[in-house]
Each structure stands twice: as structure tokens, then as C-alpha cells.
Design a protein that fits this description.
The protein is of the alpha+beta class. 29% of the residues lie in helices and 25% in strands. The protein is globular and about 95 Å long.
């Protein structure tokens, strides 16, 4: 017999009754039923109930075991009494009578319990992550992650992509976040950087003639943490293709992701990829207040400025006299009660706004009536016109925000989400995907008027060089994101592979050719030697798994995550280097006051 096990703790069934077996695993819990000891023995695969009574030659040893001791047992498989069968376990028809035991590893007193669903502070969970990972939910999350990655790889190979590994140590390259710098021992005073993404290398692969590339790529960014973002490193499905247009990229990656969500999405509905909406960045901001809208929520915001222009509601009327301002409405089907409206007004105040105006419509017996402070100020004609534009009726409401859109869009988007949640309008049994397209390349500083990049500077401008000769603020890029249930899952672009267009694009933002060559010399030089049109995207593995696992925090699907302060509490990182290390690298740490 094998030194540690003849079967896993999920393998035994009634077909094994009478067999002598050997199992190894962790003591999940111990129960004493009148002198008969029952142990739920757990390994990676499942749980088997083992039992021991005073007739066993090792009863005294079994009495000593405690939770999370690692043990090996030998014993005989017995059928459970019919009334004691546990249908929730694959091994629920049998139990193993212990005849021999060996303690493979004792456990100290546990800082957190593995059995059950108790909640523990994040600090405790991350400090003892190896124990936290023993919990059933965490085991399932990590198995899911592994299975998702395997499925993605297979699907990409099936589409004739090959996986290539790009460098982990490279040059610093500004890509929207801070680099992690790595000092060079052989070149004192100089630094490498960990790649924020394989962006430049995958484009160079296209110049090298590889045509279809993908990689499950580690990426490193020194960012502030959020619930859906790791502060240090993350993994993405990175892909690039030559001789493609935007739609070709969509047609390639969408079936891959749809297939993964259908395979692992717990029977939630996934719309066919060819039906995924393509929404312009401008419309997404207007309708949803976000470039990663949750389309499970049917609420779509609208501009209602004309109904308030020269109206009796002085705040909005005066606001609209200023250039670049507008009034937007958030429809709230079934939200037509003063209590709900007051609650949402309080929400807006908590978000830093003076409040949100509202109108709600109620049945007065002889007909419908518009109620609320706004309705009284603007009169029945205007409120009726608003109701008709928004398609609302009795029992519905609408909320209103005004000003320059960029100042209130994000709050309006969050309010839309809260309204959808509170009114139970969100379809919880669906993964709703949408492509966000037509991103503006440039923006102007409101104070100085200076033109700079608003989004990816390496996207090909729609219209090429001719587009760059007009108003920069009207230039759109072949850049796109894929949103799902309120999260950005994919970001990508058709790349600007023409050096002359690239130099012009950067010149508009104030960077001359010398600066571009200095910052992106490797890529610019390569583009001089017959660069093909190419494009691609990257999909966040961590976020995909987070959605599939039904988690709200990305740390629940990462094996060993950092905490909110970008610290590894288990390994004590970051930590202080030794004097010898600093001397070898020619570095000195300046104490912080």
C-alpha cells in the first residue's frame, strides 16, 4: 500500500465496503458520540467520515487529535446505516473504521477556524492565508480560477493563437500607472522596471511576423487598491493580431469570453456575442454615467435641459445660462413615493452634492398627478413633457442633476446603480456584456486649455492623419473596452503603427519627435521596417474569476493578495533591505520624516 493513501477523501463509495484503505488529510472536525469518536477527514478532494471506538487498538491515540492536525489512518470501509446516509457528500454512504493512525503534522491553536463560515478580519485572513485557503469556499474559488485559465488557453489555441512569453524585467514605460522599479547591480544608478503590461512587446511580435499572439500575462502596477483591483500585480489574457480591424478583434475575443462565462457561470444567462451592444463612450457617459455600465439595470439617463430652460425652477434655469451645462434625468420606475425620493436625495447629499431634485407621479383618483418640489416649480405642462419623454407613469419617479457633465456624471452613474438595486430592477441571473467604443483621444485642461491625451495615446485615430488636422477634441480612437455587470473586463485598441501618424498624434499633445523616440524608441524604430496593421486587447483574469465566483472583492480569488496598504502580511513585504544589499546596488535609503 502507498505510504500515505490508497484513496482520496472523495473517492470511497458503497462499492468499497469491506475494503482496507489508507487515507491522509486534515482533521476537519471531531465529534464524540458517547465514547465513539467521529472525525471528518478532509483533503483537497473532499471529506470522508472516519470513526473509532474503544475496541480500536489506536483509540487512545485518536482521542488526542485536534482540529487541523494532519493525519494518516488505515481502516475498513463500512456501510452507514440508512438513516445516517449523508446525501450531500460523495462519500456519504460509507464511513471508515480506524485501525491505525499516524500523526503527520500537529497543529498549534488556530488563529482562525477552517470549519464553518465564520467571518474574520482581513488582517487575520491575510496573515494566515495558508489557513484561510483551507476553507471550502477559498478552495473552490482557486480551483475555479485554475479551471478558467485552462479553458481560456484551450479556446485561444483552438482559434490558432500561440502563447509566447514576454520579458518580466524591462525598461520603464509610462502606461497610465506607476512602475515598480528594479535597481541594476551591473549598471549602478540605472533601473529596470516590471512591465505594467506586455504592450510594447506584443506589438513588436506583430512586427516580427507572428500574426496571432496570446499570453496569460503577469502585470505589475504600483496602484492604489480597490475592491476590484490589486495594488501590485494581476494577470490578464493578453492577445494581439495582425491585419485586423476593430470588428475582427471583437469577433475573436467575444466567443472566448462568452464560452468561459457559459461554462463556469452557474447557469446565468449569457447573451450571444453577436448581440452584444456597441455603445459609444459619449453615449455611455450620458446614459449610464460610466464607461463600464451595468446593463442588467434597465435605467437609461436622458438630457432634459429644454424642460427646465426659462422655467420656474431658478436653480436649474440659471445653471443652463452657463456654457457647457445641462440637466439630466434618472428615471426610477416604481420609485414613486416621497419616502424613497427623500432617501435618494439624502444619498446625493452624502456623495457631496446639494441634493437631487425629483418628481414622482401618483394616482389622485381623477387622474395622474406630478408631485414633489420640482413639479410645483415648473408646472404641469413641463412635468407632463418630462414624463412622456422618459416613458414613466403612475408609481414612477425621476431624479435630476445639473451642471457641467464631467462634474456630476460619475455621481449620477452611482445613483443610477443604487436606484436600480433598491427598486430591484437588476437582473441578477444574467451576465450583460457591452462594447464601449469611440473613445476620444484628447482632452483639454479646463483652466489652461492645454491639449493632452485623455485615453490610450497608441490607438490609431479614426480617419488617420486627416483626422489629426482638425479639432483635436473631436478625434476619436479605434479604442474599445468590454464591460460586464459594471466592471471593465477588456481593454484594447487598433494600434497606431504608422510612425508619421504617431509623431503627429504626440505633437498635438505637446511631445516632439525627439521625446517620443526617447520614451518609445524600441517600438518606433521597429515601425520603420514594415509594421503590419495590428490590434488586440487584454482581459482581466482576476475580474473574470471574481464575477464567476460571485465575489465582491478581488482578493477572494487571488491566492496570496496584498492588503489595502499593498503589504504582504504573511511574508512581511515590503521589508528593509540589508546594508550589504544596498551597498551592492549603490543605493542609499533616505529616512522619511
Amino acid at each position: 500500500m502507498h505510504a500515505y493513501r490508497s484513496h482520496s477523501c472523495a473517492a470511497l463509495t458503497s462499492a468499497n465496503v469491506g475494503d482496507t484503505v489508507r487515507l491522509s488529510g486534515w482533521v476537519h472536525r471531531v465529534r464524540d458520540h458517547g465514547g465513539v469518536l467521529f472525525i471528518d477527514l478532509r483533503d483537497h478532494y473532499g471529506v470522508t467520515q472516519v470513526l473509532c471506538d474503544p475496541d480500536s487498538p489506536v483509540f487512545a491515540e485518536v482521542e488526542k487529535v485536534r482540529s487541523e492536525w494532519c493525519i494518516r489512518i488505515d481502516g475498513n470501509v463500512k456501510a452507514r446505516d440508512g438513516s445516517l446516509i449523508n446525501p450531500k457528500l460523495p462519500t456519504g454512504e460509507i464511513e471508515v473504521y480506524v485501525r491505525d493512525i499516524e500523526v503527520l503534522g500537529h497543529s498549534a491553536e488556530l488563529p482562525l477556524m477552517v470549519f464553518g463560515d465564520q467571518e474574520y478580519p482581513e488582517e487575520t485572513r491575510l496573515t494566515y492565508r495558508y489557513l484561510d485557503l483551507r476553507r471550502e469556499k477559498m478552495q473552490e474559488n482557486m480551483k475555479l480560477r485554475s479551471d478558467v485559465v485552462a479553458s481560456i488557453r484551450k479556446r485561444m489555441w483552438d482559434k490558432e493563437f500561440r502563447e509566447y512569453q514576454t520579458p518580466i524585467i524591462t525598461a520603464s514605460s509610462p502606461e497610465g500607472a506607476r512602475d515598480f522599479l528594479v535597481p541594476s547591480r551591473l549598471h549602478p544608478g540605472k533601473f529596470y522596471a516590471l512591465p505594467q503590461a506586455p504592450q510594447q512587446f506584443k506589438q513588436l511580435l506583430m512586427v516580427s511576423g507572428f500574426d496571432k499572439y496570446f499570453q496569460i500575462a503577469p502585470c505589475f502596477r504600483d496602484e492604489d487598491p480597490r475592491a476590484d483591483r490589486s495594488p501590485t500585480d494581476f494577470y490578464q489574457l493578453d492577445m494581439e493580431m495582425s491585419f485586423v480591424e476593430q470588428q475582427d478583434v471583437f469577433d475573436t475575443i467575444a466567443p472566448v469570453l462568452a464560452g468561459v462565462f457559459e461554462e463556469f457561470g452557474d447557469c446565468k444567462k449569457v447573451d450571444a456575442p453577436e448581440t452584444w451592444e456597441q455603445i459609444s463612450y459619449r453615449d455611455a457617459a450620458l446614459w449610464y454615467g460610466s464607461d463600464k455600465p451595468d446593463l442588467r439595470n434597465p435605467i437609461k439617463m436622458q438630457v432634459v435641459s429644454d424642460h427646465f430652460r426659462d422655467s420656474g425652477f431658478a436653480i436649474f434655469a440659471k445653471l443652463l445660462e452657463q456654457e457647457g451645462t445641462e440637466i439630466r434625468a434618472i428615471p426610477a420606475p416604481t420609485g414613486g413615493s416621497r419616502k424613497f425620493c427623500d432617501r435618494m436625495n439624502a444619498y446625493a447629499q452624502k456623495e457631496g452634492l446639494p441634493g437631487m431634485g425629483y418628481i414622482f407621479w401618483r394616482d389622485q383618483g381623477e387622474g395622474m398627478e406630478a408631485a414633489g418640489p420640482l413639479a410645483k416649480n415648473i408646472g404641469p405642462e413641463r412635468t407632463e413633457a418630462i414624463r412622456q419623454q422618459l416613458g414613466l407613469g403612475v408609481g414612477d419617479a425621476a431624479f435630476f442633476l445639473g451642471g457641467k457633465p464631467k462634474a456630476f456624471e460619475a455621481i449620477a452613474g452611482r445613483a443610477r446603480n443604487v436606484i436600480g438595486e433598491e427598486l430591484k430592477l437588476i437582473d441578477e441571473d444574467r451576465f450583460a456584456f457591452a462594447w464601449i467604443v469611440d473613445f476620444p483621444i484628447y482632452e483639454a485642461d479646463e483652466e489652461t486649455g492645454k491639449i493632452d491625451f485623455e485615453h490610450n495615446p497608441f490607438s490609431m485615430p479614426q480617419g488617420g492623419m486627416e483626422a489629426l488636422d482638425g479639432d483635436p477634441l473631436k478625434v476619436l480612437g479605434f479604442q474599445y473596452d468590454l464591460a460586464c455587470n459594471g466592471y471593465e473586463l477588456v481593454s484594447g485598441a487598433i494600434r497606431n503603427h504608422r510612425p508619421e501618424i504617431m509623431f503627429k498624434a504626440f505633437e498635438i499633445a505637446g511631445y516632439d519627435e525627439a521625446e517620443v523616440r526617447k520614451r518609445f524608441g524600441g517600438m518606433v524604430n521597429a515601425f520603420q521596417y514594415g509594421a503590419p496593421p495590428h490590434g488586440g486587447c487584454a482581459a482581466g483574469i482576476d475580474r473574470i474569476v471574481m464575477l464567476l465566483a460571485g465575489e465582491q472583492n478581488i482578493r477572494e480569488v487571488i491566492l496570496f493578495p496584498m492588503n489595502q496598504r499593498a503589504e504582504d502580511l504573511m511574508m512581511d513585504a515590503p521589508n528593509d533591505p540589508t546594508s550589504d544589499q544596498l551597498m551592492e546596488l549603490g543605493l542609499r535609503v533616505i529616512p522619511q520624516d
